[in-house]
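Q: I'm teaching a short session on how sequence maps to structure, and I want students to see two examples side by side rather than one. Could you give me a first protein with its sequence written out and its structure tokens following it? Keep the formatting plain so it prints cleanly on a handout.
A: Of course. Example one:
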Amino acid sequence: MEPEKQAHTTLQDDAESTLKNVREEDLFTWRAPVRPFKRRDRQFFTTVGAIAILVGLVMFFLEGLLPVAVIAALYFLLYVLSTIPPEEVEHKLTNKGLYFAGKKYGWDELTRFWFSDRFGTFGTELLIVEAVRAPWRLEMVIQSQDKERLRRELEERLVYEEAAPNFLDKAASWLSKRVQLEG
């Protein structure tokens, strides 16, 4: 091996071993529900149920029983997610990465972050971080007073850039504007 390449490899190995030997320090920790939650009323479930029945009937005549079973399962999932409050978990930023509900993601596995809200003006604030491995997008509930501190800490390590909405995001937005499920 050439001396120049050998010196470069040795410097790179030294830098990597130094990073591995650095003690992990907590930068910011918070507890929050594992997912956004909004309790739904009876009118919401009645409206969604009526839509599910109509779509289910059409699908039954076009395709048979399997699509109806899928629609029923999705309705049940919506019911469960809207009636059972989520558990509270701990999220943590450290000098070596991000802990999302106890699972560690190193800074090299994360690409960018941004903030969003769910359920309207007075809804739930979210910190969204994109990852290079599954689940590819981490959504963490945050308190609005923690937003600036989180932004400062994350901007030192990641790019602050909101992802453009994909087809599913656009379709959900279009549908929610045209179909009012709540009064």
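Q: Perfect. Now a second example for contrast.
A: Example two:
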Amino acid sequence: MQLLGISGVAIGFAFRDILQNFLAGILILLTEPFQLDDQIVFKDFEGTVENIQTRATTIRTYDGRRIVISNSELFMSW
């Protein structure tokens, strides 16, 4: 019985991040603080928004790197 309780807590923590990213992605898509091809700055990265999905946003930096940012991090810093 204790194993089920511990497993439940572990699964809850695992899905917490997924759910946070999903909800932040929905809010980003609904509120549109930025759109495709917009120029944004996130922490040490600056570039063009290439893709916005429900779990992550992809930007292309000016030096050609592709950066995938979790939507919960992006939404909290916006």
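Q: What should students look for in example two?
A: Point them to this: The domain at 2-77 is CATH 2.30.30.60 (SH3 type barrels.). Also worth mentioning: The chain has one domain: 2-77.
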